[in-house]
């Protein structure tokens, strides 16, 4: 088996498992059974076969980075590759070793292939759905809520002098606060590259710029 063949086989696993989804790889951790299967499989490979797997993983890793525009931009700027891609490469190594080891059981093969084949990819949209934006004054919607609270306080002060005017000011303040709150709740993290991943070690600003 040639290195290019192993690389293409691993790419096909990614295509068939995750399709066109781009984002952060979420793979299961290595348990004791998988660790033992890994050690047993690797011990059966010759030095040449181990080098073959290493050579196959280099273009595979590059391909994973290229298919994720945010990761590609990060690496192009001189930063390390996202940690989830490195984790996916370790899982791919187990997958390749399982195909080469001559004397491992079907159960051991399944364990070594499971991490890469049974993971998932979390897109930036899914991340936004499970995380609320932080309450920080550099967020314009939080500032809107603060203005609303200020108007409410002002209305309370005016109400001591003119109740009708104070009531109107309070209503306006509540409306401003509710508007800001709704915008804050529905706010989404954006990126300068559409449909990209959120990776460890990086932060995407609200104005669309990537900050490392």
Question: What would your notes on this structure say?
Answer:
This protein has 212 residues and is mainly α. It folds into two domains: 3-124, no CATH class; 140-186. The chain contains nine helices and four strands, in the order αβαααααβαααββ. It has helices spanning 3-18, 32-43, 47-67, 69-76, 83-100, 106-117, 124-130, 140-159, 163-186, and strands spanning 24-26, 120-122, 203-204, 210-211. Strand 3 and strand 4 (210-211) form a beta hairpin. Helix 1 (3-18) packs across helix 3. The longest helix is centred in the last third of the chain and has 24 residues, at 163-186. It is elongated, with a radius of gyration of 26 Å.
Features:
212 residues, mainly alpha, two-stranded antiparallel ribbon, 9 helices, 65% helix, disordered C terminus
């Amino acid at each position: 088996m040639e290195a290019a063949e192993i690389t293409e086989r691993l790419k096909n696993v990614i295509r068939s498992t995750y399709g066109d989804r781009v984002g952060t790889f979420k793979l299961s951790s290595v348990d004791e059974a998988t660790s033992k299967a890994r050690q047993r499989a690797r011990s059966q490979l010759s030095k040449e076969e181990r080098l073959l797997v290493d050579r196959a993983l280099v273009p595979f890793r590059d391909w994973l980075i290229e298919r994720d525009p945010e990761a590609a931009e990060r690496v192009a700027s001189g930063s390390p590759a996202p940690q989830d891609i490195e984790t996916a490469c370790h899982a791919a190594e187990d997958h390749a070793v399982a195909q080469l080891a001559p004397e491992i059981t079907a159960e051991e093969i399944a364990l070594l292939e499971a991490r890469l084949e049974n993971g998932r990819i979390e897109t930036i949209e899914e991340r936004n759905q499970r995380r609320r934006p932080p309450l920080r004054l550099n967020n314009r919607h939080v500032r809107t809520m603060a203005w609303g609270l200020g108007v409410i306080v002002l209305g309370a002060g005016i109400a001591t002098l003119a109740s009708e005017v104070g009531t109107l000011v309070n209503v306006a303040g509540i409306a401003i606060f509710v508007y800001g709150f709704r915008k804050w709740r529905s706010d989404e993290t954006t990126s300068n590259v559409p449909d990209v991943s959120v990776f460890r070690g990086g932060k995407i600003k609200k104005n669309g710029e990537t900050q490392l």
